Amino acid sequence: MDDHRVEIDIAYNDYFMEVYTIDCRELQDLIPILKDDERDSFTIGDKVLFKKDLNSVSIVNHGLGFIYMDVM
Question: Does the model's pTM come out above 0.90?
Fold first, then answer.
């Protein structure tokens, strides 16, 4: 695997965003977790992120994005 890094944008609301940079191996591990509706959290580095606290997760330059919303 190469040393390519990927930018992940985490949006909490319309006004606050965090940006992380991860390697391809981490991205391969992360995508199934983001897609799994049964998983309520995931980690990036040392930080645990809860889907219920997020609006979206975007994987920059890869055409992937995940939107999280409460469904009543």
Answer: no
SS (H, E, C) 17-31: EEEEEEEHHHHHHHH
Strands (E), 1-72: 5-11, 17-23, 41-44, 47-50, 56-59, 64-67
Model pLDDT for residues 8-61, shown as the tens digit of each residue: 999 987 778 999 999 989 999 999 999 999 999 999 989 999 999 999 999 988
Class of residue 41 by CB neighbours under 10 A (exposed 0-12, middle 13-18, buried 19+):
exposed
Residues 6+ apart with CB under 8 A from 12: 18, 53, 54, 55
Structure tokens at 5: 């890094």
Tell me if 58 sits within 8 A of 9, measured CB to CB.
yes
Token pair recorded at residue 9:
């944008």
